[in-house]
Design goal:
Layout lengths: L10 H20 L3 H5 L5 H8 L3 H11 E4 L2 E4 L1 H18 L2 H21 L6 H10 L1 H11 L5 H7 L7 H4 L3 H13 L17 E7 L4 E9 L4 E4 L5 E3 L6 H8 L6 H17 L4 H25 L5
Antiparallel strand pairs: 1-2, 3-4, 4-5, 5-6
């Protein structure tokens, strides 16, 4: 990925951008007029159901989009302006989208074939020529397809696409992202993703040398991390397990590689949040971490010098 732009973009900014795009895409798919969408009042449940704001989205980002009106919410003025602008550009781009799409895919695929044929001598001039040939199509393709990219991709790029569409794709990696999106856009569907595995009780069984057997904790994934219930210590933890999970392990003198386990908890939390992972799959992966800790704890005890 290219070096990060001085105008850096945070995960939150990228996610808010994706939520805006999602609202436009959903309205377009349903054939709804954007003015009727933005002028309505919505309950919190309607925000969740209509716009596919997940529980964490409502908790973290509701105020970026809505102002309260009694027990209901309406879009903020600045947000209505942005949504109307995006919707207008989307409608305009759709008029020439089909021709631009065919031309773009043909030329980009030809470029990629040339790159595959000569992988050790990438010709940046070839990319520049192709990109310049397609420059007028980039805005049409972007606004016509309304791509939703992973937040970390936009963080790495250091920019949001809508700030300068042509400049955003002035990079082989973001250019490839657009090609992939356009190829797969028909399969896009809104999703509540990890909401299906939030606040579900799961077992976390860890061996302890102190007690000579496994102890079973109860853990839930929450919108901000994890919640653990145990005999000794109960409460919340961050996504990486910092807090009550680590305190329980430390309380029982369980030996574990702290940073690696923190990385594992973080990676699992993000994986469970990003897709519709079933509770059964999440529970199994959570127990994988517990089994890993247990194996290290046993080996540590077996290999520890008997004079210590």
């Amino acid at each position: 990925m290219a070096m990060k732009n001085p105008d850096s973009v945070s995960f939150n900014e990228a996610h808010i951008r994706n939520l805006k795009i999602q609202i436009i895409k959903l309205a377009s798919q349903r054939g709804e007029d954007i003015n009727s969408v933005i002028n309505n009042l919505y309950s919190e449940n309607e925000i969740h159901d209509k716009f596919y704001f997940r529980k964490n989205d409502i908790h973290e980002y509701k105020a970026n989009f809505f102002e309260s009106h009694g027990t209901e919410y309406h879009f903020r003025n600045l947000m209505t302006e942005r949504l109307k602008e995006y919707s207008g550009k989307h409608k305009e781009a759709k008029e020439n989208y089909s021709d631009a799409r065919s031309r773009f895919l043909d030329q980009s695929k030809a470029l990629f074939r040339r790159m595959e044929e000569n992988p050790w001598n990438f010709d940046n001039d070839d990319f520049e020529r192709t990109k310049n040939d397609l420059k007028d199509d980039l805005s049409i393709l972007h606004w016509g397809s309304l791509p939703i990219y992973k937040e970390k991709y936009m963080e790495e790029r250091g920019a949001l696409p809508e700030k300068d569409v042509v400049a955003y794709y002035d990079d082989i990696y973001t250019f490839k992202d657009l090609v992939k999106w356009i190829e797969e856009e028909a399969t896009w569907k809104p999703s509540f993703k990890g909401d299906c595995n939030l606040d579900q009780d799961m077992n976390f069984s860890v061996y302890s040398r102190r007690w000579g057997h496994r102890d079973s904790y109860r853990i839930k994934r929450t919108i901000s991390g994890w919640d653990i219930r145990a005999i000794a210590i109960n409460g919340s933890s961050a996504k990486d397990g910092t807090g009550m999970i680590m305190e329980n392990l430390d309380h029982d003198n369980i030996f574990y590689p702290k940073q690696s386990i923190k990385d594992a908890f973080t990676y699992l939390w993000e994986m469970a949040d990003e897709r519709e992972m079933t509770v059964e799959e999440l529970a199994a992966k959570l127990q994988n971490i517990a089994d890993w800790i247990s194996a290290i704890e046993k080996v540590f005890g077996e290999c520890k010098p008997d004079w210590l």
